[in-house]
Design brief:
With 89 residues, the protein is mostly helical. It has a two-stranded antiparallel ribbon. A hairpin with a 7-residue loop joins strand 1 and strand 2. Helix 1 crosses helix 4. The chain is globular and about 40 Å long. It starts with a helix and ends in a 10-residue tail after the last helix.
Amino acid sequence: MGAIEETGREIGRELVRPPARRPAVETVLNALTALGFAPRIEHPQPRSVRYLLRNCPYRDAVRENSRRSVRCTEASLAGCSMSPTPASS
């Protein structure tokens, strides 16, 4: 794992360290909000949650180096123990 991925994972781990017990849905929502994604929660099926990310906080960085920015974002989500899955259109 490269330095970018390790930094991203550490960011994600820091964001989900709960100061007190909270539901996982709230912990993930808070982490995505802290990262600047402006998430919205949907419940497409009973007992399921989908987070729609309405902002890309790395927009400017992506213009300069898209692959590096994507790797950092993916690693941040992995550090939060989340798996990024693009929404189908």
